[in-house]
Amino acid sequence: MYFNIEEELKKLPGQPGVYLMHDDKDEIIYVGKAISLKNRVRQYFQAGRNRTPKIEQMVSHIKRFEYIITDSEMEALILECNLIKEHQPRYNTMLKDDKAYPFIRLTVGEEYPRIMMAREMKKDNSKYFGPYTSAGAVKDTIELLTKIYRIRTCRKSLPKDIGKGRPCLNYHIHQCDAPCMGYISKEEYAENFSKAYDFLNGNYGDVADMLEKKMYEASEKMEFEEAAGYRDLLTSVKNIMQKQKITSSEFMDRDILAYATDGADAVVQVFFIRNGKMLGREHFHLTMALQKGGSELLSSFIKQYYAGTPYIPRELLVQREIEDKEVIEQWLTVKKGQKVTIKTPKKGEKERLVELARKNASMVLVQDSEKIKREEMKTTGAMREIKDLIGLAGNIERVESYDISNTNGFESVGSMVVYENGRPKRNDYRKFKIKWVKGADDYSSMEEVLTRRFEHGLREMKELEENHLDTDMGKFTRFPDLIMMDGGRGQVNVALRVLDRLGLDIPVCGMVKDDHHRTRGLYYNNIEIPISRTSEGFRLITRIQDETHRFAIEYHRSLRSKAQVHSVLDDIDGIGETRRKALMRKFKSLDNIKNASVEELKDTPSMNEGAAQKVYDFFH
After folding, report:
1. CB 583, CB 607: distance < 8 Å
2. Rounded to an integer, what distance in angstroms lies between the CA atom of residue 292 and that of residue 270?
3. 237 lies in a domain?
4. Which pairing describes strands 64-69 and 17-22: parallel, antiparallel, or unpaired?
5. For 67-125, what is each residue's pLDDT tens digit?
6. Which helix (H) or strand (E) holds 418?
7. Given CB 3.0 to 4.6 Å as the disulfide criterion, which of 45, 182, 215, 341 pairs with 230?
8. Which CATH number do you get for residue 50?
9. What are 226-260's pLDDT values in tens digits?
10. What is the Cα–Cα distance from 28 to 297, expressed in whole angstroms?
11. Backbone region of residue 540 per phi and psi (left: phi > 0; alpha: psi in -120 to 50; beta: other values)
12. What is the C-alpha separation between 59 and 72, in angstroms, rounded?
């Protein structure tokens, strides 16, 4: 489709909206919003503007753009968030994490309310605490409160179901007072629930004092098992008390956001403050394709993160003034249903908390960068080492490795293991049960496996192309950049023979082992190439070889196990699994089946006269 960018720029309206940049494959590579589409989109194509190399790179890939007009800047912001989430454009700053944080839900709308964990906050006449960063901590807190205050955990509709059925196990182990049976009054239950509610509001001292008192009372009565139970509950309360640190003299909900960057990588650290207490913290990784400044980075994070989180606090404290602050505040206010403000503190306690978050973000970024570098050396770095070792020109992204497994020719199988960018891609692993070869002939078995694999791929490609479909849709259409055989010259020559016959040009190397069955080198182009045992390339080859061997052996073992579970009845024509099981259920043993008459056999469920006659004739 012909698209004249200069002509289309003249048609841009001076209204708010969202613009989408497309590349030559018509993929969306960038989504942005603007108060004035005319002014904003033109900036990308104006010569002489001071643009970063990344923006220059993006502009060079733009082949066309489109735009959507909105009535207001806030509508544009909402649409921008939705489009970024849907298309995940290459040049937008993207939030990598997609986490759902749990809440503690109190069903205060019920006459006999309950305490439970919830993954989202709804308008359902319940009271919510959170979000919390640890699902384990939420479960522990709920379990603690239900034990201490004997809060019901059942789903019965009370008081309608009072007296129906019997009390559950929790009543018998003294963890519930069975309101479902009317054993506790509504007023007493409400009083216990109120204490649990106070606990969640931070009133831990009364609970700790009560548990300590009961522990000593039980100990004085020499009821040591009960005292130990109170001791464990007291320990749990103290653990929660230690985790809930006061971080603000103002008892309100707020999130504290700060960031650290390193090139194209960034980390945003969030502290969750609820009712003046720090409930937890979490860090989030972002990729910055256009290397934006801190203001734009925080703006992108806030829009993506709070578009998905169920809880929005009254206040956000941020490290830097963000762009579009007013419209983002307006958007958050509408989502929450209450006024939300974004502030950048310059001094005092709030500024100290933001600085603490920034230091945490910097620490996480350094630690994760080192971890990423180590992982890169083990994966893509190791792939590069292998490529350089055998002298390939292009990059190696996908490697396929093959092995054969059998026991004296019995149930021969082949395995295909796939590694992409140095990591196993288990969804692409394939198993082959040898069909054409009889006996223990590994070379012929490997020839069958490779022939079936690549013929299947070529056949799928042809079918997809004939139907004008993307060839990536096939299960076998993605061919490897390198084939690695579990063996030396013999297996390599088998692979090269198959590829030559099918007209495919794929490099093949063999993973050679020493007398102790340990990897010692690669066989490529009729030469065995030694590898340093301390190199990452060597370690990756070893992992690939071990994984290929494991996958083949597991498949062979499973087939061998199935073959061993065999009954004489399986040899009778017309007797399948259902009839075999029915006969064994009725007659209990093969001897009883042998001695049964045709009439007795026919009376067995799923059997008819013809099948009964076949069984009788088989044994007689």
Report:
1. yes
2. 20
3. no
4. antiparallel
5. 888 878 888 888 888 788 778 888 887 766 555 567 888 898 888 999 988 877 777 78
6. strand 410-420
7. 215
8. 3.40.1440.10
9. 788 778 777 766 665 554 444 444 567 889 999 98
10. 20
11. alpha
12. 27
